[in-house]
Design goal:
Blueprint (H helix, E strand, L loop, with lengths): L24 H14 L1 H8 L12 H11 L4 H14 L5 H6 L2 H6 L4 H16 L12 H9 L6 H11 L11 H11 L7 H8 L6 H19 L6
C-alpha cells in the first residue's frame, strides 16, 4: 500500500477565503444571495424550495472523528459506534485517541481501516501538520490538499469536514452522489455528472461553492420528495 508523506507544521495566512464562514444564518443568506447573481440556476432552485439549513458539526478532532466513523455505514450503526466510542473516550481529543489501545477502539466497533485513519489524523494534529481549527484561513483547495495528505482521509471526508465543521464557504464535495444527482436534475442532464464534471461546473459558484452544495442537497430532497422516490444516493 502506498503511503503519503504528511507535511510538517505549516504557517497559515491571516485569511484565505473571500466569503464569510458559514457560521450563522446571516452568512448563509449572504451566500444564497450571491449565488443567485452568479448563476440563475441556483436562484431557480432556491425559488423551488431548495432553501438549505445551516447545519454544523463540532469543529476540531471530534468533528473529524465523527465523519470518519459515519463513513459507509448506516446512520443507526454510526450512532451506536459513536456512542460506544464516546463512552470509551469521553474526552475525544487527538491525544486521547493516539494513546488509546487498539482493543478499546475495536471494542467500540471501529474497523481496522478506520482505526488507522483516526490514528494517522490524530498524529498529524499532534505534530502540527493538520491544524484542523485553522484550516478555514486557507482557500478551500489548499485546505482540502492538507487534509487528504493524511493517510485515510479522502476527498469526501475532507470537504465534508471543511463545510460542516468549519463552515468553509467554498468547500465542495464533488464526489457526493446526492450532489451529482441533484446537479443532473437541476441542469436537465440525462446522466449523473462525474466528480470531475461537477467540479468544473462548480467553478461558476466560487467563492460560494459550499453554499451551492447545500442548495443542491436541499434540492435533491425536494425533487425526490416531489417524485415520491427514495433518497438512495
Amino acid at each position: 500500500m502506498r503511503t503519503r508523506t504528511i507535511p510538517q507544521a505549516i504557517s497559515l495566512p491571516a485569511t484565505g477565503v473571500t466569503g464569510p464562514l458559514l457560521d450563522s444564518e446571516a452568512a448563509l443568506q449572504e451566500g444564497l444571495a450571491a449565488l443567485t447573481v452568479l448563476d440563475p440556476v441556483m436562484g431557480r432552485l432556491v425559488a423551488e424550495g431548495a432553501v438549505p439549513p445551516l447545519r454544523k458539526r463540532p469543529p476540531g478532532f471530534e468533528g473529524l472523528a465523527g465523519i470518519v466513523v459515519s463513513q459507509q455505514i448506516s446512520t443507526a450503526s454510526a450512532a451506536a459506534i459513536w456512542g460506544r466510542l464516546a463512552a470509551a473516550l469521553p474526552d475525544l481529543t487527538a491525544e486521547a485517541l493516539a494513546a488509546a489501545p487498539d482493543d478499546r477502539l475495536r471494542g467500540a466497533g471501529l474497523s481496522a481501516p478506520k482505526i488507522r485513519t483516526l490514528r494517522a489524523a490524530a498524529q498529524a494534529v499532534i505534530d502540527g501538520a493538520l491544524p484542523l481549527a485553522a484550516l478555514h484561513a486557507l482557500p478551500a483547495d489548499e485546505a482540502h490538499r492538507r487534509m487528504v495528505a493524511v493517510h485515510g482521509i479522502g476527498p469526501w471526508t475532507a470537504d465534508v469536514y471543511l463545510l460542516f465543521c468549519l463552515g468553509h464557504p467554498d468547500a465542495f464535495p464533488a464526489g457526493d452522489l446526492a450532489l451529482q444527482e441533484a446537479a443532473r436534475l437541476a441542469d436537465g442532464l440525462e446522466t449523473r455528472p462525474s466528480a470531475a464534471a461537477l467540479t468544473a461546473r462548480a467553478e461558476a459558484w466560487r467563492p460560494w461553492r459550499g453554499v451551492a452544495a447545500k442548495v443542491l442537497w436541499a434540492y435533491y430532497r425536494v425533487a425526490k420528495a416531489r417524485d415520491g422516490a427514495p433518497l438512495t444516493p
